[in-house]
Amino acid sequence: MTTLEMTNVTYAYTSGSKQQRILNDVSMQFEAGRFYAILGESGSGKTTALSLLSGLDSPTEGQITYQGRDIRKIGLTTYRSRHAATVFQSFNLLTYMNALDNVIVALELSGQRIKGKKKHAQNLLEQVGIDEAHATKNVLQLSGGQQQRVAIARALATEAPIILADEPTGALDEKTATDIIRLFQELAHRSNRCIIAVTHSAEVARAADHIIELKKQRFIEKKRVTEGEVVPAR
Questions:
Q1: What pTM does this model have?
Q2: 187-216 per-position pLDDT tens digit
Q3: Domains of the chain and any CATH numbers
Q4: Using an 8 Å Cβ cutoff, are 66 and 6 in contact?
Q5: What sign does the dihedral 71-76-80-83 (CA atoms) show?
Q6: How far apart are CA 54 and CA 43, in angstroms?
Q7: Separation of alpha carbons 29 and 68, rounded Å
């Protein structure tokens, strides 16, 4: 079933007297339980596509729908807080807080009525490999890989069915990157989430179920890579 869909999406902005077109008549469907990698050269529009899919910006033409509803009619704030969570390349953690409090804040902002938020937040951190000792450390005391895991736990706290990631392994060492890739695979295949990652990484692409190449302002290639259970990143 299609969870998220771009239909005839064009995005352009005006610079001086000229209009710069970044995306041109792009259409694509994304399904639950699948892991997508969007590839493209620098400046190809990958980050713009992610911003549109995450509801951080709106297309100039066309529409983006979540379960058949235009996300603008859902309300972009509601869409971002309940349906689509973004893991940023720079993590965007609250640096004056520890890991646990970062996740608790995400729970509170999502509007969920959960008893025992602290315990629930700790469980989410443990799911992504952050133990109790590290959960109580200020996030600046954590490694880049650990901060990325906290950012993913924060995304999980919203219970959003869609998780979007901007260069999720770009600043990580090879082993940590492999662990993060496997985590995204598990979230897609075992938790039935739709995972969409913008990346330059060949490792991320090989681990994804679908590779989408963005070239000349359009998605021009979609390749199905694997089916079913979690496949180790190679």
A1: 0.86
A2: 999 999 999 999 988 889 899 999 998 887
A3: 1-83+160-234 (3.40.50.300), 93-159 (no CATH)
A4: no
A5: negative
A6: 19
A7: 11
